[in-house]
């Protein structure tokens, strides 16, 4: 039986200037899965994410966490934000402490934990993102990619059940993007539900268990990576691109060079295996 950790029911949000950023969004996110949200800028992804942990309060509808509708009092919001962490697109908007250790320890200290537990959590979070050797380094001396990692550790130290990443690989080169995705896989293997928004269709296709497509504040389709990216009409209407792996596979099928469609490749290795077979 599927267990849903986060749901929205007819969730809507309108900004003070009257912009309707979300329109009756209904989604269910399965616990422990890797989830991607895709769509052009302005489709509502970031606004939805800020509703996920109570930074924004919906204008209508409800957010449901582990079967219970979220209440917007201080105690409930603190509990929600402890369990659902957001890593913003630009780490400069999240990092504010002098050193890496001070930065990552801040959240754990706010939980009123014993000092030994704070140190244990900080050390573990920094090791998980490959930044333990930089723990005493000044934050402003870090590279952009290193700052991205520290912003992830900021959330990991809270021991959340869900981590939400807004455009986590933007402004990163392919090598560092790949390293960030490896970190997501490690996080997910620990049982944490990982949610991200991305414009990178290659990442969405190869990494995700499930994808939601947004357009104009609405969910226009949801499904497995293949269900999403094999829908040519959807790709055109939502200004997306077909992932190169899937496009290559479909052309091989059309040309008769590959006959079996039982295994649909999700990455280069699977595609090469199919061709060699």
From TrEMBL:
It is a peripheral membrane protein. The keyword Membrane applies. Keywords: ATP-binding, Cell membrane, Membrane, Nucleotide-binding, Translocase, Transport. It holds the Pfam family ABC_tran. Its main location: membrane. Belongs to the ABC transporter superfamily. This is ABC transporter ATP-binding protein. The lineage of its organism: Bacteria, Bacillati, Bacillota, Clostridia, Eubacteriales.
